């Protein structure tokens, strides 16, 4: 069902004219187009859509669900089971035939198609969200209020674990010192100049863009990014055109992923990071990560060689090998204990004591993904991409 074109009285076309005079009593909140890319999202899509329909937003909003055709995507079968959901006047479904030669993810392509449809319908803001999250009832209202108040080109929020999720994986993803999910603090203005200092980069699970920003970058939208850093590449393209994104922990959605450690995602993130760095060598954020990865690899090799060489050097010097090995191992364990205590304090949960071991595993897999792409000189193959899609 198509949404009729509509132009709101608060058309966000520029930063200085972002908000009309507060004295105008008839001012209407901007029309928001919400875009959800899907592919075999039957487990979570219904809860995601129902949460969006319950948004306490005084303005007009519509939802575009963008997926593949029925023979390629099982999402539609789940939506059809909810009476009247697909016929809801605020919902539009877009089905794209996935090319046979396409490998990897196509989420960014679907986001682009959804934003283009919302633009045609007259939306002033474009809210990007995932099918594996659900938004609290005030998510949209608070985000729109903030983007108008701060007169920025976009708002990036965070994702939190499900309120009922007390599993080790859920707590770890929220509170690890090296979490894959970004945390920004109360506010961080992400620009091209501040990109290298960012505490984290925007994720498309909670990202709202102005009409002006989308219109400017739609021609360079990274729709061909098939794995890894498609979220961060989009943010880089946005700020590279001179726009500002306000990143804040005060706007959030709840994750509805399977409660597990997503090790394959670390492999994907590492490979995507190196590919991003190769394509954008001037990006200080990517350069900083590569330097950390190199330093971490060197540190790991130093520890391994030290452990291997210690018995020989101890014998040559006439030192008791067991005591030397025990002392060195004790120092390593003490370091892990200190990191564990810091993680437990941050998480306010004793499970944080085991976070350092998980951090080491995740970092090693991330470096492995980056090394794989580096060895292949920035290229991946279809088998690797299919593996990442299946297990990430």
Written description of the protein model:
This protein is of the alpha/beta class and 392 residues long. It folds into 2 domains: 32-260, Spore Coat Polysaccharide Biosynthesis Protein SpsA, Chain A; 285-391, no CATH class. Helices cover 45% and strands 14% of the residues. Strands 1, 2, 3, 4, 5, 6, 7, 8 and 9 form a 9-stranded mixed β-sheet that branches. 38% of the residues are buried.
Instruction: Spell the H/E element sequence.
Output: EHEHEHEEHEHEEHHEHHHHH
Query: Beta-strand level of the residues, as a percent range?
Result: 5-15%
CATH architecture of the largest domain: Alpha-Beta Complex
Spans with pLDDT under 50 lasting ≥5 residues? Answer: 1-26
How many structural domains are formed by the residues?
2
Give the mean pLDDT: 84
Q: What characteristic shape results from the CA principal axes?
A: elongated
Number of strands: 9
Question: In short, what is this structure?
Answer:
With 392 residues, the protein is α/β, with parallel strands linked by helices. It has helices at residues 45-53, 75-80, 107-121, 139-150, 168-175, 211-217, 230-240, 263-279, 284-316, 321-347, 355-375, 382-391, and strands spanning 32-37, 61-68, 91-96, 125-129, 133-134, 154-160, 188-190, 206-210, 245-255.
Helix-strand blueprint:
Elements: E1 32-37, H1 45-53, E2 61-68, H2 75-80, E3 91-96, H3 107-121, E4 125-129, E5 133-134, H4 139-150, E6 154-160, H5 168-175, E7 188-190, E8 206-210, H6 211-217, H7 230-240, E9 245-255, H8 263-279, H9 284-316, H10 321-347, H11 355-375, H12 382-391
Parallel strand pairs: 1-2, 1-4, 2-3, 6-9
Antiparallel strand pairs: 4-8, 5-9, 6-8, 7-9
Helix pairs in contact: 8-9, 8-11, 9-10
